[in-house]
Amino acid sequence: MSGSTAGLVLAAGEGRRFGGPKAPYVLDGERLVDRAVHLLRDAECEPVVVVLGAWVGRVDDADITVVNADWASGMGSSLRLGLDTLVGTEADRVVVTLVDLPGLSPEAVRRLVDSGSDLAQAAYAGERGHPVLLGRGHWPGVRDAADGDRGARAYLAAHDVALVEVGDVASGEDLDERPA
């Protein structure tokens, strides 16, 4: 492939059930947003783009940080903004992850990148999860399908997606509530 595989962190939500935005939350000494950026970097994704919204702050290690003014409409608007931002780069694929996946690992992201697929999704014991890998040719369709909190779900359901098992090197659980 001529271009690179970018990383896209969706971090714009307000974290209603969590009690506030998740991006700045510090877990094990690191903000969730920084952790997401670092694991994409460790998996050699470039550039790394972060979409913020309910919380806006510095994310020093991201290559590009954009603010979704329409964050309250749901994840779909953040996914659209992130893909629109990447159109101007040389990336030919993107790994899209959520900010609230503390069990995700660089190894899991590398498996997606190394799958050779243009459309892949992480699987945990056979169950679909995050992150997802989207080849540039899929970006317009994903963008058109992204609506509300559904993100790429409808697009992925309508296409042949390579499931890449990563459950042995990562956890797909998201952080919906603050740890006790």
UniProtKB/TrEMBL annotation:
Keywords for the protein's UniProt record, in alphabetical order: Transferase
GO molecular function: transferase activity
InterPro entries: MobA-like_NTP_Trfase, Nucleotide-diphossugar_trans
SUPFAM superfamilies according to UniProt: Nucleotide-diphospho-sugar transferases
Domain MobA-like NTP transferase: 7-159
Keyword presence, Transferase: yes
Keyword Secreted (UniProt): no
A Pfam cross-reference name: NTP_transf_3
Protein name as it appears in the record: NTP transferase domain-containing protein
Species: Longivirga aurantiaca
